[in-house]
Amino acid sequence: MTPIPTLDSARLRFDPLCESDLDTIFHLYSNPDVVRLFGQDRMTETAHAQYWLDIQGQMRQLDLGATWVLRLKESGQAVGTFSFDGINRQWHNVGISYALHPDYWRRGLMTETLQTMVAFAWCGALAGPMHRIQALVYMENTASVALLRKVGFVREGARLGLVFWQQRYWDLESFCLLNPSDPPSAAFDTH
């Protein structure tokens, strides 16, 4: 298992997720505004947060994921999470997911987070060098779409009817960011 370090940005400290973060996770994911366009139901009891922690722990044990808690450097206050999901060493790609408490929206904290985490993925410390980072976002989540574009992600297209949640099917937008230091992708040869 690749060790997950504590990381820093100008205003944030990124602590690896641990069991003592139970209340933090419950507080974040029990907020209806956080999960409104996240694809999971709002947590209503701490057992839900424990289950989430257990899943993240299993992903960590299998070296398939890594999650951090975002804390303000000034106060130590936990304000969100960031995860690398589905780490694929063979293909050199990884997915991302993130959440921020509404009290901290529109302050540039997620831009700072994505810039820090993208640099971490590119440097090879995650699980070897990554070539591609991908994100799936609900079309209705215009703030997240704008964030990804601001950091340089490119829209690849729509994944129609990808998620069944709240008694309906949801379309998700697919975005990716390629490592700028890697050579361009090879063109498909039809011969």
Explained architecture:
The protein has helices at residues 22-29, 32-35, 46-61, 109-123, 142-151; strands at residues 7-8, 12-16, 65-72, 78-88, 93-100, 132-138, 154-165, 168-178. By secondary structure, the chain is of the alpha+beta class. It contains five helices and eight strands; from the N terminus they run E-E-H-H-H-E-E-E-H-E-H-E-E. The radius of gyration is 17 Å and the shape is globular. Strand 4 and strand 5 (93-100) form a beta hairpin. The longest helix has 16 residues, at 46-61. The protein has a domain at 7-129: Gcn5-related N-acetyltransferase (GNAT) (Aminopeptidase, 3-Layer(aba) Sandwich), CATH 3.40.630.30.
Summarize the structure.
The chain has 5 helices and 8 strands; from the N terminus they run ββαααβββαβαββ.
Given the structure, what is the number of helices? 5
Mean pLDDT: 92
One letter per element, helices H and strands E, the order comes to: EEHHHEEEHEHEE
Report on the biggest sheet: 8 strands, mixed
Secondary structure elements and their pairing?
Blueprint lengths: L6 E2 L3 E5 L5 H8 L2 H4 L10 H16 L3 E8 L5 E11 L4 E8 L8 H15 L8 E7 L3 H10 L2 E12 L2 E11 L13
Parallel strand pairs: 5-6
Antiparallel strand pairs: 1-2, 2-3, 3-4, 4-5, 6-8, 7-8
Helix pairs in contact: 1-3, 4-5
Question: What key attributes describe this structure?
Answer:
alpha+beta, Aminopeptidase, globular, 191 residues, eight-stranded mixed beta sheet, single chain
